[in-house]
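Listing S7. Sequence submitted for prediction.
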Amino acid sequence: MRPPLKSPYSPWRMNFMLSQIILSPFEPASSCDLKFLSWKTIFLVASTSACSVSELQALSIRPPYMIFHVDRVSLRTNPSFLPKVFSESNINQVIEFPVFFTNHSNKIEYMLHKLDMHRQLRFYLDRTKDIRNQINFLYPFRRPEKVDQWLKQPFQNGYLIVSHLFMQLLTYSCHTK
């Protein structure tokens, strides 16, 4: 017997992804489609925290598990979560995201501020508060949907969307010159 072969994901570059998720359709965060806001949020959390899918699912929005400080955001998993590697450091792990350029003084700082987790999490929590009926941080934008599949979408589809939008922009700029 031969096991089925899975097709590999397209290669992607982090700098390209970050440069594109600060643009439309992922911005402005206050009014973009909830799907893109969710994809951007989970992409930023997953790629910067290196958490497993189960750890991401176990993040809680309740204090003291999510705390917005002046200079950072602290996240922790729900205490009922049991990590795969059961140790004190894994159980009590705190994920911290520093604030990026709240007082931006130039265009680069303004663009980097769009990657700020403090800002992103505030928008995400505010935009999902009316549909949220749970304390888990991640809330799938569609129901019913398996959260683990939803968590993979930004990585599987995000690059394709961003690449497509980038190619449209490139094609448009070439035709207008």
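Caption to Listing S7: primary sequence and predicted structure tokens for the chain studied. Residues 162 and 168 are 10 Å apart (CA to CA). Residues 166-177 have pLDDT under 50 and may be disordered.
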